[in-house]
Amino acid sequence: MRIANLSGRLVIVTDDDTAVDVEKASRGRFSSDPQAIYERWRDFRVWASSTDLPAGSAFSPSDLGSPAPAPRQVLAAGLNYRAHADESGFDAPDVLPPVFTKYSSSITGPVTEVRLPKDGHTDWEVELVVVIGEPTHRVTEDDAWSHIAGVTVGQDISERITQLSGPAPQFGLGKSYPGFSPMGPYLVTADALTDADDLELGCSINGEQVQKGRTRDLIFSVPALVSRLSAILPLLPGDVIFTGTPAGVGMGRTPQRWLADGDVLVSHVQGVGELRQTFRA
Ligand code: ZN
C-alpha cells in the first residue's frame, strides 16, 4: 500500500496513481490528518485491505506534502554506509552509528524550492527514510519491520560550514535550515516492495548522477537500526528515521562541490518514487 499527504489530507495512492481521500472513503472513521494515522496504523491497515475503495482522482506531485509532516521525533544516522564513512574521513561505526536530529520545521514535501544559506556549503545526502507505525521500545531485529509503517525517500540536505565548525559538530542545526528535510512522495509499506532490505537509492544534479547505492550495504540495516535505537529510547508512532547516505556527497569529492543557484536535485529510492528540489540563492 502507498499513502500520501495531498494538500494536507491523507490519501491512499492506487495502483493507477490516483488518490483516494481516506476520511471520505472511511466516512470519518479515520481523520484527514496525515500524521495522525500512525497512531492507528494497525486498524488502518486492516480497514484499507478489507475495503473496496472508490475511484481515485488524478493529482500533481507538487501538491504532495511529507507523508509524516509533524513527527514528534526525527532521528538520523550518520556514517551508515562504509564508502560514505571513508569519503568523510571517519572510521565506520561498530556499536551504533552517530545519531542526530533534523528539527521538524525543516520537513517539506517532495517537490520544493530550497533557499541556499548565504555563504554556505550546501550538500546533498539521499537516504531511505523509515516511519514508525507502533510504539517501539526494546524491540528485537526480528520484530523491527512489524513496528515500521513504511518507507519513503528523504534528502538530508546539509550546510557543512554550520555542521562542522565550532569545538563540537552542529549536526542538528547544519541539517535543519528551512526546506532541508524533504520527504515523499509516498509512504510505501514493506510488503509492497520486492525486497525492503535491498533497495537502490541515488540522486542526480541537473541530470548528472552523483550518488547511487543499495540499502543492503547499510552498516546498520533498517531492522538493526530500529532495534538499537529502541534499546535506548522509545520510538513513537509517526517518528521518522533517516537511515544514512551512500557515498557521493559533495564534501567527499575532489574538488569539493556544493549546491548552487538553479541546481535541480532529483533523488530516488527504487519502488518508492522521487524527490525534486530546486535551489535558489
Ligand atoms: Zn545523512
Detail the topology: elements first, then pairings:
Elements: E1 2-6, E2 9-13, E3 19-21, H1 22-25, H2 41-50, E4 64-65, E5 74-77, H3 82-88, E6 99-100, E7 107-108, E8 111-115, E9 122-123, E10 126-132, H4 141-144, E11 148-155, E12 158-159, H5 160-164, H6 171-174, E13 181-188, E14 200-205, E15 208-214, H7 222-230, E16 240-242, E17 264-269, E18 273-280
Parallel strand pairs: 5-16, 7-13, 8-18
Antiparallel strand pairs: 1-2, 1-4, 1-13, 2-3, 5-6, 9-12, 10-11, 10-16, 11-13, 14-15, 14-17, 17-18
Zinc ion binds at residues 76, 78, 125, 127, 156, 242, 244-245.
Number of domains: 2
Instruction: Give me the number of helical elements.
Output: 7
Return the structural class. Answer: alpha+beta
The number of E-state strands comes to 18
CATH superfamily assignment of the largest domain? Fumarylacetoacetase-like, C-terminal domain
